[in-house]
Amino acid sequence: MRFSALASLFVGSSLLAACSMPDGDSMNRAAPVIAAQPATMGGVAASARMVDAASNERSAPSTVSVPRPEPVVQNRPGLGTAMGEITSSPTRIMVSERMTPASPNAVASIRYNNRENMSGMAIGERDLSRTPVVVRITENGRACTVELALRSGSDRIYPMGPRYTPNNQFFAAGEAGQTYTIGIANNNCTYTYEAVTTVDGLDVITGQAGSIRNGGYLVEPGKNIQIAGFRVSTSSIATFRFDSVANSYAARPGSDARNIGVIGIALFAQRPSAETIQRNNANPFPADQPRR
Fold first, then answer.
1. pTM, 2 dp
2. How far is CA 258 from CA 115, 199, 255, 262, in A?
3. In 3D, which of 120, 101, 82, 125 has the Cα closest to residue 252?
4. Which of 37, 54, 178, 233 has the most crowded CB, counting CB atoms within 10 A?
5. Would you give the DSSP letter of residue 178?
6. How far apart (Å, rounded) are the C-alpha atoms in residues 189 and 145?
7. Digitized pLDDT (tens) for each residue of the chain, 292 residues in all
């Protein structure tokens, strides 16, 4: 599966994307969104139509075929992430803007492997639990949290830990052959956050080498999202599946297999719209306001 069309859509144009995360509370669900900087809206809409047309003309298999990896990769133990079934994930376009374009408010990593190969990963199995891990962010002097979780197809959280660490370096135990999603919950933060996300060093939207300059997924206050796979068009994804290093998508010829085993999430606060600021500052008793 090639990502060239998506790369032209999402790289270098400050595009952001968002998808919904099923959870028990329907009030916390958000419709899938692709967001763009205001200046690029026209081009984004046109590019999105072109990508959709190309994907409709292409006869995609139910799973993605990846070429055989280099021999040195075939002998590596542990888990990587393969591209699984193609599933529907339609999106829409929305305008959004980072408050600090080049400086994330927080960067987290989740280093994953199977239980058999976690002994050398600086954490013991007893320190893992089936609960989300916590990233702490400071907003205007106030602390808030974003929770991260790797979930199975049955919404079960894979063992993760530690619950909190100042450097936001976490670990997770996966299971070969099982699918997973990356859950991100904006629990009590004031701002909407963009989550630029990579798996095995590859951007989950473009499939190319990860960079904080790439676009990400939007998580509104009090909302959850679930990133379920590599995006292969504006309307579909290839699901994440734990597999051998040799079968992982990052092990294909021409890619960089050195980063297999890590998930990265960079969080950027989004600038509130003028309408949001005006509503937040609206005075319910304007006649009592002191005259200047």
1. 0.79
2. 20, 12, 9, 10
3. 82
4. 233
5. -
6. 6
7. 444 444 434 443 334 444 433 344 444 645 445 555 454 444 444 434 433 433 443 334 445 455 554 555 777 889 999 999 999 988 766 778 999 999 999 999 999 999 887 766 766 667 899 999 999 999 999 999 999 999 998 889 999 999 999 999 999 999 999 999 999 999 999 999 999 999 999 999 889 999 999 888 899 999 999 999 999 888 899 999 999 999 999 998 888 899 999 999 999 999 987 887 888 889 998 888 887 6
